[in-house]
Amino acid sequence: MATTSVWGDLQALTTAIGSAGEATREDSEAYGRVLLGIRALMKPVVCSVHGRAIGAGTGLATACDLVLAHEDAEFGYPEVRFGAVPALVMALLRRTVGEKHAADLVLTGRVIAAEEAERIGLVSRVLPAASFEQDVAAVLAGISRSPSTSLALTKWLLYKLDTLSFEDGVAAGVVTDVESRATPEFQDGVRRRADQEGPQ
Fold first, then answer.
1. C-alpha 47 chain-centroid distance
2. Where are the beta strands (DSSP E) in the chain?
3. How many CA atoms lie within 13 A of 1 on its CB side?
4. Do 139 and 177 belong together in one domain?
5. What are 119-160's pLDDT values in tens digits?
């Protein structure tokens, strides 16, 4: 996924110095729409990172549902070092890694390796260099075998919980469970599983 945001391109940032505030607002709003669009899409969005994902690149990765990192990948939010703020992604980052890890990343601007990114929850999995492409393909193939309805409902509930109390979250889980079990995909899946296992 790509964005035209100047925050992802230092050369464009240099060109944008002194530009009108309205142009900056439009650019920021466009990047914000990309981040919100990833969350709103009712399909899993998987990001694979090979190399450096810095600034807006790390922001895009943070917005995705799964982040699969090459063992040599690097991540960071260096904006504070040149007078900017990683403002648009902080709501996502704080939810993803927690307050202290988020503060460490955005206040120091340091770049971290894939292993540390996985440890703090910024990355879902670190995959070995020797089999990176095959491992990414295997993850995608595994996801694609699940029914689209159950994937959509699972993603919706996962992020809906951010806005709910514990009690309301459990209640939303009940509603989602009932809805998922009413789908033809669930019923067909149960029948196939029963046929495979045979009589007990």
1. 7
2. 46-49, 52-54, 66-70, 74-76, 111-113, 125-127
3. 21
4. no
5. 999 999 999 999 999 999 999 999 999 999 999 999 999 999
Q: Specify whether the CB–CB gap between 139 and 66 falls below 8 A.
A: yes
What range defines the domain where residue 158 resides? Answer: 148-197
**pTM of the predicted structure, to 2 decimals:** 0.82
Domain boundary among 109, 124, 144: 144
Whether 116 is catalytic is: no
Strand order in the sheet with 52-54: 52-54, 74-76, 111-113
Q: Is 12 within a domain?
A: no
DSSP secondary structure letter of residue 164? S
Same domain, 109 and 175: no
Residue from 79, 99, 116, 179 carrying the catalytic annotation: 79
